[in-house]
Amino acid sequence: TEREDDSVSKALEKELNSVDVLTITRFLQYSLVIPLKAHMEIVNNEILKMYLYDLDILGHFESLRNYFLLMDGEFSTHICDNLFHRLETVRAPEELLNYQTLHSILNGALYSSSAGTDPNANRLSFIVCQVPEKFDLYSPNVFSMLNLSYRVEWPLNLIFSMETIEQYTNVFKYLVKVRRVSYVLEDSFQLLKEASKRLGKPLLHSPQYARVQLIRHKLSHLVNALKNYITSSVLHASWEAFRDDLQDSTETMEDLFRKHRTYLKRVIFLCLLNKRSIEFYNNIEQIFRVVLRFYRHLRSKEWRLQEPALAAANGMQYYVHPRYRQILDDEVDFEKLIKYTIFLGNKMYDHGYQKEISEFLHVININGYYDDVKPVVS
């Protein structure tokens, strides 16, 4: 009847009015939020499976590490040595910075290493920003116009954005810079070795030859320490931390993106490529310039016998280098720069920033060698 219906409606209305806001909120959570969370968990699991199994995202992480961070030894050696050799032999930049030559070097590096079987190898290519009028062989940034690129498509570009690939490229260019400085020091060693074979004991008895070898050793010690720091404390340690992080509660694509970004930021941070480390980085680059200047002076002239008048005054005739004074100036500049580098590094460490750098500083200043630098000029 109508009276009964009215009484029931009023009772329901009264009951609804008596329900507080917290109860309604809880009902909504039970009826909407929980099913949505369950649905989102299923969707996230499927997306994560797609990245892990269908797109093999872990394989891409490893490929980027091998190529851009030069952690594939055969690939990195082949590509760097060929670039550096061609740099010294070409008559004009166009002979090196063209598609055919660069990709011949790249393909040779890929097929000479285990990267030849990598399905991601065909994603690599070189990009030349601009071709200079000539190469400045004694600049650390001689390859600044050369970028390594990695082709990605949707949905991989959600993880490997253009910004991410650019960051990888910047690390690659820095590592090539370090490798080239190491390469010229190895070539300096070969130049001195060939001179000793050609000129024999008279050269080995030369005080200048011994001093030049000592200077080369000082320069090599720093560069080798930097290479070891980058390989062990930066690249290898960051990769292991990234792998452990991936195994720890990676549930969504956002987790994957965030953990990869953290890994790449750590590499950039430890390579001193961020803004806060710019002073330390610039100082290291000045040291690179000194190394290249030493190389230029060493190779510019051949060793020759001392003038007879000077030989008579010294009581014996030995070989001298025409650029010996300039080489001694290079040593003075190097020791000033390395002392300031140690000061900056210790300052960063004392302020709790870049604690990983302490091992590098200890190696280059072992037994306090540079604590009181007093270059000796003979």
Word description of this protein:
The chain has 378 residues and is mainly α. It folds into three domains: 22-54; 56-160, Four Helix Bundle (Hemerythrin (Met), subunit A), CATH 1.20.120.1900; 178-377, no CATH class. It is built from 13 helices and four strands. Strands 1-2 form a two-stranded antiparallel sheet.
Radius of gyration: 31 Å
Number of domains: 3
Unreliable stretches, pLDDT < 50, 5 or more residues? 373-378
CA-CA gap between termini: 121 Å
Number of strands: 4
- By secondary-structure content and strand pairing, the structural class works out as mainly alpha
> The biggest beta sheet, please?
2 strands, antiparallel
Q: Counting H and I runs of at least 4 residues, what is the number of helices?
A: 13
Strand order of the largest sheet: 1-2
Instruction: State which percent range the strand residues make up.
Output: under 5%
Order of helices and strands: HHHHHEEHHHHHEHEHH
Portion of residues within helices: 55-70%
Task: Report the average pLDDT across residues.
Answer: 86
Overall geometry comes to: elongated
